[in-house]
Write a structure and sequence with these properties.
Layout: H1 4-29, H2 34-50, H3 55-77
Helix pairs in contact: 1-2
């Protein structure tokens, strides 16, 4: 696993648009099988770590994490 400092440097180089486009590319390449979706989760987790180079993008990632955690909590309650 790459250190977050290295990922942030790449994120700074790519900028907001570049990070988002790379994430979109990963999403579009996914074939939709359970296996592919879980691999996509791993790829997007790298994008999320890379996004910490930018305060706004980090805020958006945090929002997504919070929403996912709320969804998981709903499953725990069922």
């Amino acid at each position: 696993m790459k250190p977050i400092a290295e990922l942030r440097l790449v994120g700074e180089k790519l900028g907001r648009e570049g990070i988002a486009l790379m994430a979109r590319e990963f999403i579009e390449q996914s074939e939709g099988s359970y296996k592919d979706i879980m691999e996509l989760c791993g790829k997007l987790s790298v994008m999320a770590r890379m996004a910490t180079c930018d305060d706004y993008w980090e805020e958006q990632v945090s929002r997504g994490i919070q929403r996912a955690e709320i969804r998981v909590e709903r499953e725990e309650i069922k």
